[in-house]
From TrEMBL:
Transmembrane stretches, start-end: 6-23, 278-298, 318-340
Chain positions recorded as heme binding sites: 418
Record protein name field: Cytochrome P450 9e2
Gene3D superfamilies xrefs: Cytochrome P450 (1.10.630.10)
Matching CDD domains: CYP6-like
Keyword list, A-Z: Endoplasmic reticulum, Heme, Iron, Membrane, Metal-binding, Microsome, Monooxygenase, Oxidoreductase, Transmembrane, Transmembrane helix
Organism: Cryptotermes secundus
Compartments, as annotated in UniProt: Endoplasmic reticulum membrane; Microsome membrane
Gene Ontology CC terms: endoplasmic reticulum membrane
Gene encoding the protein: CYP9E2_3
Length: 427
């Protein structure tokens, strides 16, 4: 009996030791190289709270970022994988811009064999294939294309606002399959269905006759479709929420929109929207060429936007709809993008041996990964005073020059940034 117990104890001990060694065998990587780093735990590294869904990865990166304060970069462990976390804007600029050829690839771990559709997406492609696809897609993002699209979507938007104005004035107005209820002066509309119809009109009008036959192009469409759902729609929802919470900013923005519409005879033009300086501080210049992004962008955003806006006495429903239409042309938002960036982290994969130009000098080898903590940078008071405050004036002509390069990264940085960035921000 005692002998059996001793055998079980020994076996348990050996298994525990082997398990510990397997779960920590890479966790001395940064210690050996004298790199400042966070202490890992077996198997999980520094990802335990993320793995158990206690916090999100961007929130975890804020914690890592703050704990590594005083260092230009530091080491963290993604389970067993050592990862470099960049804190210094100059280092970020080196990795993403100046020495981009060493970090051409993103840190996306999608196998084209396992996921042939998303593996061919622009976000996932590597090396020369990414360069070729980027060159193929870039002509779709020209200013002339955007202007043409703007006119078509404006026509659809006018039809929508005309219809809703009739709903306000005509108590008997109905639309088949769309729920409309009235209680006193309150008009309740099933916006999900209404704007599904609207976005169908937009797509049918602006993309009529376009055929997607090539698998590579189909992959880009699928990627943009999902990107719109997860980023653009959420960001515009946040923008509307912030405006509802700050009626002074909302009122000033509404005044500018109304004044612009008055000057242009009630018509929205590409030039008029780009001429709205305060709008540019709150929301950035539109990029509306990604048709499937537009579909989900408006479809999901407008369900959310009605609730916070209708409470404000500053905006009538009709003027609200005009403001919504302007916002529905805008995919990304400036100050809102700072508070709520679409992705809280950028990843870059080293493709050529590279030594970080900072003490201590650390050499990255092909296959190593770098984290850039976008969310943490956007909420660092050293770069954005009172970072939790919604303050579009940060991006005014007088103030935007004080924003340090590579601290505001909602679209990424360098050649591998968002393909529509130069049309999305009027800097």
């Amino acid at each position: 009996m005692l002998e059996s117990l001793w055998v079980w104890t020994l076996a348990t001990g050996l298994i525990s030791i082997i398990g510990y060694l397997l779960g920590t065998w890479t966790h001395d990587h940064f210690s050996k190289k004298n790199v400042p780093h966070l202490k890992p735990v077996p198997f999980f590294g520094n990802m335990g709270s993320v793995a158990f869904r206690i916090v999100s990865l961007p929130e975890s990166l804020v914690d890592w970022y703050n704990r590594l304060k005083g260092h230009k970069y530091g080491g963290v462990y993604e389970f067993l994988n050592p990862i470099i976390l960049l804190r210094d804007p100059e280092l970020i600029k080196m990795v993403t811009v100046k020495d981009f050829e060493h970090f051409v690839d993103r840190g996306v771990r999608i196998s084209e064999e396992v996921e042939p559709l998303f593996g061919k997406g622009l976000f996932s492609l590597k090396g020369q294939r990414w360069k070729d696809m980027r060159s193929t897609l870039s002509p779709a993002f020209t200013s002339s294309k955007m202007k043409n699209m703007f006119v078509l979507i404006t026509e659809c938007g006018k039809q929508l606002t005309d219809f809703l104005e009739k709903c306000i004035n005509d108590k008997n107005m109905t639309i088949e399959g769309c729920k409309i209820e009235r209680e006193g002066n309150i008009l309740a509309v099933e916006m999900k269905d209404l704007f599904t119809r609207y976005t169908n009109d937009v797509i049918a009008t602006s993309a009529f006759g376009i055929k997607w036959e090539d698998d590579d192009i189909t992959a880009q469409v699928a990627l943009f479709f999902l990107a719109g759902f997860d980023t653009a729609s959420s960001l515009l929802s946040f923008a509307s929420q912030l405006l509802a919470m700050h009626p002074d900013i909302q009122s000033r923005l509404q005044d500018e929109i109304d004044q612009t519409l008055k000057v242009d005879g009630g018509n929205l033009t590409y030039e008029a929207v780009h001429g709205m300086k305060y709008l540019d501080m709150v929301v950035s210049a539109p990029h509306i060429n990604i048709l499937f992004t537009i579909y989900l962008l408006i479809n999901n955003f407008l369900d959310y936007v009605i609730f916070p806006f209708h409470k404000s006495p500053l905006v009538s429903l009709y003027n609200l709809l005009k403001a919504i239409f302007v916002l529905s042309l805008v995919i990304y938002v400036t100050e809102t993008l700072r508070i709520y960036p679409p992705i809280g982290i950028l990843e870059r994969r080293c493709v050529q041996t590279y030594t970080l130009p900072a003490e201590p000098h650390y050499t990255l080898n092909p296959g190593d990964f770098v984290y850039i903590p976008v969310y943490a940078l956007h909420h660092d008071p050293d770069y954005f005073p009172d970072p939790e405050k919604f303050d579009p004036e940060r991006f005014s002509d007088e103030n935007k020059g004080s924003i340090k390069a590579c601290t505001y990264l909602p679209f990424g940085s360098g050649p591998r940034n968002c393909i529509g960035k130069k049309y999305l921000l009027s800097v």
